[in-house]
Amino acid sequence: MPRGYEEGPVAEEAEARRDALERGEPIEPLPHTPDRRAVYGSTDEEPERHFLGWADEVDPDELFESGRAWGITVLREHMD
Question: Rounded mean pLDDT of 5-20?
Fold first, then answer.
C-alpha cells in the first residue's frame, strides 16, 4: 500500500541527499540527536506514574530495592 505523497522541507532534503548519492557525491552525515534515559515510576507521595529523574542521576534499581518507588520503567527520551 502506498504511503502517500511526501512533501515539505524534510522530504526535499531527503530527495536532495538521494540525488547526491546517485551522482556519487560525498554527503555529510545527518546530525544525531542525543538520547537520554528517563526513569518513570510511582511513589507514596505520587502514586500515578511520573518522571523520577534521569538514569544517569538516579539509580532505578536502588529506588526499587529501597521501596521508595515501584513500577519503574526506563525510557529513552530524545533531547532537542
Answer: 77
